[in-house]
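Sharing a chain and its predicted structure for anyone who wants a worked example. Both blocks are below, sequence first, tokens second.
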Amino acid sequence: MNKVILCGRLTKDPEVRYSQGGEPMAIARYTLAVDRRRGRNTGDGEQTADFISCVAFGKSGEFAEKYLKKGTKMIISGRIQTGSYTNKDGVKVYTTEVVVEDQEFAESKNSSSNGGSYGDNYSNNASAPASNPAPTAAGDGFMNIPDGIEEELPFN
């Protein structure tokens, strides 16, 4: 099985081109910076990143063109594809990229501007009860559910 799931940020705006022919198809290319922690045995805990080339075709390419930009945090799933070509100097170049099958935002539009707090997103929800305070993000990044709201959750 060839399946990959990545979470990272775009390093720059996607480059989008359209194929030639009767039905032009969007082809979006972008690079995702994915954090990689160094081994636990080294003790330094310093983070580095892998820069992974991604390509999205068709509707996924159009989505990337319209909504993605540098710094956007995304979760993508797809498959790894390898290839090769000979460059103008006659040197064979090998390529590896992820062909995007599914892509979604990993954070809300407002979360990067408000320091990652999800409370504002919840309080703007029309279905949120006015009497309950909005949940706040805990230190682990998950929201605390306010008291008295459990009976309203669809998954008790």
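Comments welcome. Residues 59-67 form the longest helix (9 residues).
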